[in-house]
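Researcher: Good morning. I'm working through a list of sequences from a screen, and I'd like to move beyond sequence-only analysis. For each chain I'm collecting a predicted structure so we can compare shapes side by side. This is the next one on the list. No need for commentary yet; just the structure.
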Amino acid sequence: MQGHSHMQQKRGPRMKKKVYENAAAALDGLLFDGMSIAAGGFGLCGIPELLIAAIHDAGTKEITVASNNCGVDDFGLGVLLKDRRIRKMISSYVGENAEFMRQYLSGELELEFNPQGTLAERMRAGGAGIPGFYTRTGVGTVIAEGKEHKEFDGETYILERGLVVDLAIVKAWKGDEQGNLVYRKTARNFNPNAATCGRICVAEVEEIVPLGSFDPDCIHTPGIFVHRIVQGPHEKRIEQRTIRAA
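Model: Good morning. Structure tokens for this chain:
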């Protein structure tokens, strides 16, 4: 019986180590100039700030970033933009970042505008292996220029491509050792879709819990999509702080 048990143990699936000690270690060997990155978050809510900072520290440049927006001038993706590390943004919102606007209007930054729902679906479709889909959003606007138009049930739709990138970086509330993730409230936003569309996905979390801690029905991103995970402290910033006189 001992021998049989030993053989079963040897033949069973081996759990690959996914937990890394810090963001730099979690990104080691994954970064290169000219790469494409999908980043979760909305404004400053649910952004993978530790991984963004590590990408900045690594000196990676000429990056194409798919993200709802580009952070603010001195935080989040804004730090990469400020140092001219980003070549192209695939975004739906460019507000709150004066440097983003300046670089775009001066022709220094390439920008591919996507409606928010279209960008989310492009990420989801890419992660699901769907190369393209039709949507009515953007028909009759500059968004539709150069795209295939097709009629369904008397309505015109445009073809949008699924998005697949070299690296996805996401922020979650909790994760276990195998990368199963749970997001907190509105910080879920673009993160689940972004996580699926990267050839490699690295997640940062506020807390790593033991395997088996999550009810399977409550997992937002299954660990099959997540290759590396890191825990670290996060700064709770307010995107637009508004106060009134006492």
